[in-house]
From TrEMBL:
It holds the Pfam family Thiolase_C. This is Acetyl-CoA C-acyltransferase. The lineage of its organism: Bacteria, Bacillati, Actinomycetota, Actinomycetes, Kitasatosporales. Its EC number is 2.3.1.16, 2.3.1.9. It comes from the Bacteria. Keywords: Acyltransferase, Transferase. PANTHER family: ACETYL-COA C-ACYLTRANSFERASE, BETA-KETOACYL COA THIOLASE FADA3-RELATED. One of its GO terms (molecular function) is acetyl-CoA C-acetyltransferase activity. Residues 285-405 form the Thiolase C-terminal domain. Residues 124-167 are annotated as: Disordered. InterPro entries: Thiolase, Thiolase-like, Thiolase_C, Thiolase_N.
Amino acid sequence: MPPHAVITSTVRTPIGRAHKGVLADVRPDDLLAATVAQALARTPGLEPAHVDDLIVGCALPGGEQGFNIARIAAVLLGWDHVPAVTVNRFCTSSLQAIRMAAQSVRCGDADVVVAAGIESQSRLAHGSSDTWPGTENPAFGEARDRTRRRSGPRTAPWTDPRDDGALPDPYIPVGLAAENAADHYGITRTAMDAYAVRSHRLTQRARAEGFHFGDIMPVKLPDGTTAEADDCPRTGVTPQSLAALPPRFRPDGRVTAGNSAPLSDGAAAVVVMSEEYARAHGHAPLARILATGASAGSAETEGPAPVAATYGVLARAGMSLADVDTICGNEPFAAQVLAYCAELGLDPERMNPHGGSIALGEPYGAAGARLTTTALTTLRHDDLSTALITVVAAGGQGMTMLLERAT
């Protein structure tokens, strides 16, 4: 049987609100390098010479996030001997990085891999990978026209274009995909706002308890000060305050800035190694990676995309949802979380017991690694054994990972 892949350390930066938060003036490659170095330092006795590979997720790998940012970070750290690769599966990018690290370890190609994620919305003014005019495939012209029509008022409920033999729109704005998911699953504005209020309430409680304190590394800023705390969470969020916000993506829509994750900046990193290597070198595992999975659905709804992956990882582990102690998932939009739960028959109250990205923010490429950090803290804090991590991404893709706390 292949060796287990284990996680020996995790870390994340504070999450900063895009363009006006604590990380707005920090280059993403510098932020990534500091985060990777800190992840390594949190596994005592592990040195750069022991690292076989660096795999980094980034959803928009252009501009300052371009040039294979993983390798840029390695060179900044003096890790010239460490090969490095940047992967892009949008919000699942760093979960894909962890999956690739685990696969490399399990098949014997590596002993130690650092997996990380980075995203800086603030720095996209210096270039992005997905915004060049005239680069969309004209084969999707009719689909793009359909999306533009659905951005207007008094639109009919969403139906799958494949049912009519038409191409779906893979370029659809993620907020409109959330509107489509709300249409398809009958998710009300009230339900979406209620979930968002819960995310804020639980996040505020977690902050008061110091839940995230050990996860977050301080970040030295260009002005010489230090960022040590997330700056996206808001106090005083109520159903009434959210109900007053206008729809953001469609005049008669339900998705608002209040029931969506704020644009943000941040990074996270995870050290993955074989259980045998950890044992032989005295590194204490935090968790075993029991299974990972990827799946996809309609690009025009996105939310249910991780459902098949969820069933797959549970089947491979011989478990059911009822056997899982805690579930940590990204929250790009409340509609997408609720669509995922509806498809699984899952009570949304089981999601993110210490708050989620509607309150914290969601740096796209770092989402999976940040959730891994939070999931492991949840297992320790709540004295639990198993955690399911689930991430939905643009383009109708999803990933899941099942962890077992090491004892």
